């Protein structure tokens, strides 16, 4: 993709602080980290987001993400790790090249999760009947 920032990082037309690279994937520091050591893991081959990736490649990507998350947790002595994927603009996706955030977390780092709201009576069953796959 000519106009894709992360494709340009893969092609080394734009610099990045690489953490890991193989023939299919690249991991580098997020330029605006939530905490130091926040990285992005991407497939080198362009896809818009995880929903549009080939299953075989997304399977491999998740194995690598687990390996890198464990590595970061150990090296930075993190208390926890968030692994997040934003898909489409309304879900917070800004760069439209598949990427997974790995974010080291520390006790009292101040990063807040979103708040859930309980289902009104009967609503959980309605949603369940819409979503049930088998
Ligand atoms: P998302 O909202 O999931 O699309 O996240 C895109 C992420 O890419 C953000 O966390 C940005 O800080 C990060 N980002 C944008 N440009 C660069 C860059 N040139 N190098 C590293 N990370 C970047
Ligand atoms: Zn791309």
Describe the structure.
The chain is built from 3 helices and 5 strands; from the N terminus they run αβββαββα. The protein has one domain (5-131): HIT-like (HIT family, subunit A, 2-Layer Sandwich). By secondary structure, it is α+β, with helices and mostly antiparallel strands. The model has no long low-confidence stretch (mean pLDDT 96). The chain has helices spanning 5-10, 55-75, 123-131, and strands spanning 18-21, 25-29, 39-43, 80-84, 100-105. Strands 1-2-3-5-4 form a 5-stranded antiparallel β-sheet, with helices on one face. Helices cover 27% and strands 19% of the residues. It binds adenosine monophosphate (AMP) and zinc ion. Adenosine monophosphate is lined by residues 5, 14, 16, 30-32, 40, 86, 92-95. Zinc ion is lined by residues 1, 4, 6-7, 46, 97.
Question: Helices and strands in order, then pairings?
Answer:
Blueprint: H1 5-10, E1 18-21, E2 25-29, E3 39-43, H2 55-75, E4 80-84, E5 100-105, H3 123-131
Antiparallel strand pairs: 1-2, 2-3, 3-5, 4-5
The chain binds adenosine monophosphate and zinc ion (ZN).
Give descriptors for this structure.
single chain, 134 residues, alpha+beta, HIT family, subunit A, 5-stranded antiparallel beta sheet, 3 helices, 5 strands, 27% helix, binds adenosine monophosphate, binds zinc ion
Count of DSSP strands:
5
The quaternary state of the protein chains shown equals single chain
Order of helices and strands: HEEEHEEH
Euclidean distance between termini CA atoms = 38 Å
| Beta-strand percent range | 15-25%
Provide a count of the helices.
3
Per CATH, the superfamily is HIT-like
Spans of at least 5 consecutive residues whose pLDDT stays below 50 are: none
CATH class: Alpha Beta
CATH topology group: HIT family, subunit A
Q: Name the structural class.
A: alpha+beta
């Amino acid at each position: 993709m000519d106009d894709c920032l992360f494709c340009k990082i893969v092609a080394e037309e734009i610099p990045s602080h690489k953490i890991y690279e193989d023939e299919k994937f690249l991991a580098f520091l997020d330029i605006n980290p939530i905490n130091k050591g926040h990285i992005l893991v991407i497939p080198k081959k362009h896809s818009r987001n995880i929903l549009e990736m080939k299953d075989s490649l997304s399977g491999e990507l998740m194995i690598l993400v687990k390996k890198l998350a464990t590595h970061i947790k150990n090296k930075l002595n993190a208390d926890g790790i968030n692994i997040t994927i934003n898909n489409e603009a309304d879900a917070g996706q800004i760069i439209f090249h598949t990427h997974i955030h790995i974010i080291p977390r520390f006790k009292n780092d101040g990063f807040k999760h979103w708040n859930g709201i309980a289902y009104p009576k009967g609503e959980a069953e309605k949603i369940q009947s819409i979503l049930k796959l088998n």
